[in-house]
Amino acid sequence: MFAQLPPLLRDLKLPLRLQLWDGKEIDLGPNPTVTMTVKDPSVVSLLSRPSLDTLGTAYVEGRLELDGPILEVIRLGDALSEAVLGEEDEGAPERRSRDKATDAAAISYHYDLSNDFYRLWLDREMVYSCAYFPTGSEDLDSAQQAKLHHLCRKLRLKAGEYLLDVGCGWGGLARFAAREYGVRVFGITLSQEQLALGKERVRAEGLEGQVELKLLDYRDLPQDGRFDKVVSVGMFEHVGHANMPTYCQRLFGAVRAGGLVMNHGITARHPDGRPVGRGAGDFIDRYVFPHGELPHLATMVTELSLAGMEVVDVESLRLHYARTLEFWSSNLEANLAKAAQLVPEQALRIWRLYLAGCSHAFQKGWINLHQILASKPHDDGSHEVPWSRADLYR
């Protein structure tokens, strides 16, 4: 059966051990750090074109097992795929228009898995987005608190202002902004599980008078400019290329003249927004974020501008997200036994690959994370952004 392996695999010298269903083994390099156990004979033929989607799917379906440190598993899987396939890119993405029901189903698939599962590997506030490491040495809890401060400072939040939180998750940012900056917050989500826990935490902290969380689609946001500031964290990845103009227009309509809008989200490497190559994008779309599409930074700047806003500040946090995901992956790996009691086996396999794989993707620069701050100008063209960024770092 090993004779069926492409000769190139034998020449790679990767620290990878292949083990067949009958116990036979072959080392593709010295001192193997990862063992790939093939349980289904058909998997051997797949190794002639080992895309990241093919390898990931075989693992998710239990047709092969991967033993070794999960980040090393991802690194070797990428090296194996790249050696055989080269730098394959996906074609230009389709502009798929989605309705509210489709978006709600996709959000529910990803976020309604289990609150207790997410609690195993997130920080204490359950902030499920890129953390901010001012020095690079912070632990996860400290880095997430620093991220929340960073967002609030960029928005120049002042006591008594009304903040809209689009895609509020479990309410970590909403409660933080209310507690630390004295603002009122209206947060929206499409996840029933997130909403239930978010409301519970709002009540537990006695913030009912300041924080309101609601199940609401961004397309149904009030358009009367009632909000002083708008923050959207990890949200526009779910909007899709075709709906991005509508999304930006709804944010413009929700905020007052002079108000600020912060978009914090994952952005594509390629200007046309094509998925990550060698099947990685296909795997994410099938198993992790159905219908998710990443816009390029240039696309977001264009759409925000067309909606009537002025982009006043952009910051890349790509390496911050690589480190955040490494923390998340490490936390999950340390709690695999508990996680197995909370989610189905296939779901756990997906999440192990997803967290470690995304850390690798951000580290390699396949995807990015940008904070994009925009202002809705006054009629005379003025805005309310300070003359410098000095206030952010005091």
UniProtKB/TrEMBL annotation:
<keyword id="KW-0443">Lipid metabolism</keyword>
<dbReference type="InterPro" id="IPR057206">
    <property type="entry name" value="DUF7884"/>
</dbReference>
<dbReference type="Pfam" id="PF25371">
    <property type="entry name" value="DUF7884"/>
</dbReference>
<dbReference type="InterPro" id="IPR029063">
    <property type="entry name" value="SAM-dependent_MTases_sf"/>
</dbReference>
<keyword id="KW-0489">Methyltransferase</keyword>
<dbReference type="InterPro" id="IPR048027">
    <property type="entry name" value="CfaB-like"/>
</dbReference>
<dbReference type="InterPro" id="IPR050723">
    <property type="entry name" value="CFA/CMAS"/>
</dbReference>
<dbReference type="Pfam" id="PF02353">
    <property type="entry name" value="CMAS"/>
</dbReference>
<feature type="active site">
    <location>
        <position position="358"/>
    </location>
</feature>
<protein>
    <submittedName>
        <fullName>Putative cyclopropane-fatty-acyl-phospholipid synthase</fullName>
        <ecNumber>2.1.1.79</ecNumber>
    </submittedName>
</protein>
<dbReference type="GO" id="GO:0032259">
    <property type="term" value="P:methylation"/>
</dbReference>
<feature type="domain" description="DUF7884">
    <location>
        <begin position="12"/>
        <end position="76"/>
    </location>
</feature>
<dbReference type="InterPro" id="IPR003333">
    <property type="entry name" value="CMAS"/>
</dbReference>
<keyword id="KW-0949">S-adenosyl-L-methionine</keyword>
<dbReference type="GO" id="GO:0008825">
    <property type="term" value="F:cyclopropane-fatty-acyl-phospholipid synthase activity"/>
</dbReference>
<comment type="similarity">
    <text>Belongs to the CFA/CMAS family.</text>
</comment>
<dbReference type="GO" id="GO:0008610">
    <property type="term" value="P:lipid biosynthetic process"/>
</dbReference>
<keyword id="KW-0808">Transferase</keyword>
